[in-house]
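Q: Sequence in, structure out?
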Amino acid sequence: MKQLRNFLKLSGSDHSLLAITFILLGAIRLGLFFLAFRNLLKLLQKINQQNIRFPCSTQKSQISVGKIVWAVNVATRYTPGGAKCLARALTTQFLMNRYHYSSELRIGVAKEQGGQLEAHAWIEYQGWVAIGNLPDLSRFIPMPSLEGVKL
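A: Exactly. Output:
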């Protein structure tokens, strides 16, 4: 009940951003399940390049990076089964690109104590981790950036 009251207290633009983020996060989760990663990235780029307006499309200054990260975190909390770091990072990057913030998707790998490889994805913005920060993020060795790579 408290969550519903908190939701109702949000502004109209926050409702729209949250709804879009929730739908986008679900679509990206499905895309990660059904599409090759490369094809999903191509599709997201193609959608971003088209001039489709979101209901909450406003000036860059009205949707901050912090607000985008907030929306992804809240949408993740209410997504059945949650969302893994890659889906969260891709959703954040898509929204940041949409609002003209340049960000970089980083994917790192690390070896667990048992010897198995572990991967993690995060988004960097202006030299700091916008989403996907972990207390032990430094143990992940970042893979080469996908920036400028022809998909």
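The chain has a mean pLDDT of 88.
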